[in-house]
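Quick one - first record:
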Amino acid sequence: MARQKRRPIAEMNVVPYIDVMLVLLVIFMVTAPVLTQGVRVDLPNVASEPIKSDKNKVPLIVSIQANGHYVIERGREENKAVNLEYLQKYVAKILKQQPDTDVLVRGDETVAYGKVIALMSTLQAAGAQGVGLVTEAPEPGR
């Protein structure tokens, strides 16, 4: 009885790779919403109508943090504190290129009123025709 030589199987088993890929996909799907960037600002709770804006336009949002720092929030740019002089030049440049850009202010409810007025004055000097104020809707029952 002669033994037949067994040929090695040259197939690659891809099932473990598919399992790993699906696990990674689930992990990314769960963590992606958590990775939203922004600046921590406690907005005042006010009942107001939403601002109507074009979904395709990216608004220019300037935040005032509780410590009084001004932060520009636009697209994927890094959110860092800026002074009013830089802010005025930046906003003027944006409005010169895209005059219909919405300018919004997010102010922490503990910020002094003078800081908000200084920001609004700077935005007006930069050429903003109108400025929207961002608030949060009050919780039901308040």
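second record:
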Amino acid sequence: MAEERARGLYFEEFSPGMELLSPARTVTEADVVLFAGLSGDYNPLHTDAEFAKGTPYGQRIAHGLLGLAIASGLAARAGFIEGTALAFLGLNWKFKGPILIGDTIHLRAKVAKTRPLPSMGGGMVIFEVSVDNQRGETVQRGEWSLLVRSRGEEG
């Protein structure tokens, strides 16, 4: 049986300047509650509505790391690394603003640099990534480095 082509892009298909956009996703109350349970982070800023009323946000906000986790999922949903990402090598990340419960966020990724790593079966792709809400505000941003599989002999 012939092997199907991966849905994601191979290393050779990425080029500096290429821009990719994910679908959007609304951050829900359930997301925040489940993330608190999964991570053990029950900070009242995320879990106590009365406490959160007295903060600069006036309401509970999503965990910053929940936003990063959702961003990773949005990259997967966008499909450009599906079946071709071999490893997440690192990141440099900034939390620029709150993600409110009910915000709809999407991921924007721009290829900043590529570097072949033939001994690793592909190459490193460095993305400039931003997470933006429905108001066009960037709430998180940074740089992701991924090891992406080379096309090899499939192409």
